[in-house]
Amino acid sequence: MSSGTEAEPGGDPGPGDGRIAELRLSIDDLDRRIVALLAERTTVVRTLTEYKRDEDAVRSPGRVEQVVAKVRGLAEEHGMPPAIAEATYRTLIDELTRLQLDRLAERRRETAAGARS
Ligand SMILES: O=C(O)C(=O)C[C@]1(C(=O)O)C=C[C@H](O)C=C1
């Protein structure tokens, strides 16, 4: 029966368990801050979307590569593998592009409905 204090449920308690639990609390705290910043970034992207007129503007491949190059450089400065920053941001930007395309389609429907009424 698990005591709930070991590093992995069901495993035997080990000498590093206290430290693992402590480090996981640090990770949980960092995740709270990271997601808050990502939410703030997403709000800015949503606002920016309202100024975009078409799919090319939404996709902005040149800007995507600029952001990826920037975050790779920042990762290096902070001693983090740049590939992790790149993969994270490519996933983030893919999802934000999808969100922007959905919004663009919604705006087009609104405009078409307005023109009919
Ligand atoms: O810079 C833009 O135009 C954005 O829409 C933001 C962002 C990003 O998340 O950095 C998202 C989608 C791409 O078009 C390019 C960049």
Automatic annotation (TrEMBL):
Keyword list (alphabetical) reads: Isomerase
Tell me the ranges covered by the Chorismate mutase domain, including all copies. Answer: 14-104
- Could you state one GO biological process linked to this protein? salicylic acid biosynthetic process
Gene3D superfamilies with a match to the protein in the record: Chorismate mutase
Q: For this protein, what is any one GO molecular function term?
A: chorismate mutase activity
Which InterPro entries did the record assign?
A: Chorismate_II_sf, Chorismate_mutase-related, CM_dom_sf, CM_II_prokaryot
Superkingdom of source? Bacteria
Keyword Nucleotide-binding listed? The answer is: no
Region Disordered, as annotated, extends over 1-20
Name of the protein this chain belongs to:
Chorismate mutase
Species of origin: Streptomyces alfalfae
